[in-house]
Request: fold
Amino acid sequence: MFEEIGYSSLGSQELRDYMAGEAESEYALVDVRQPQEYLAGHIPGARNMPLPEFGARLGELDPNARTVLYCQSGGRSRVAATMAVESEHFAAGLLNLDQGMNGWDGVAVDQAPRLQVFHGMTDPRQVLLKALELEKAALLLYNYVAKKADKEPVVKLMQDLAGMETAHAKLVYKELAKLGGQELAPFDDLFASLTGDVLEGGRTIAELKPWVQEALQGGGMEAAELALEIEYTAYDLYRAMAHENSDKASGEVFLTLAGQEKNHGRMILDRLDDLMEPTE
Reply:
């Protein structure tokens, strides 16, 4: 990391370490490229604030959360960082990703977060029930791949992820129970009643069919790519919903869910070496 005038620049590995170690509420990740560039591939959890609009939209960012800026090569984000410094809006500091997406060697997701999954939901109870539905879909998918796969590393990864989805669903259920109000069915009964038609991140199982086929026909890396697509798309959606939601309680729920999805993604990344098939 090196200091600029009023902000610091950091490399790809430094940013990945920073994001892994920070609570979701402690930072905002902002992509200042044009919308079509953002849709083609962006860092999970980033919100799009194109540079031509950036100055007028500074007020959308929390001054008490550190803001991380990036673009394609680092030039536009440095301009945005300078604008942000001059605004004197940011009390928590500014970071710039040196070399931008050109230097980013972490996971990227395409398309915009599918906010319509939670359309019209401002009640934390509604949010958590929908989150349970998404967890159920991911569990069903991972169980399906584990059952159909014939390679042990793929089976093991999918079984582990299925277990994590169940554990995550139970955490969501606990948050739901804390809200009180309407009586809740026991977890097993409620979870069994959910259809799980839409996955975490807003994709349908049908949309992921090509990824599933690759995971079944390939080896561990193909399975890992399927799982990373699911987990980081979910992370991207939950971060976006936290920004979009005006209800503080719901926003905090989304950030909690985002943090849990990020942990799932890191578990997959940590196991990539084990999933590599030996070469002759």
Summary: The mean pLDDT is 88.
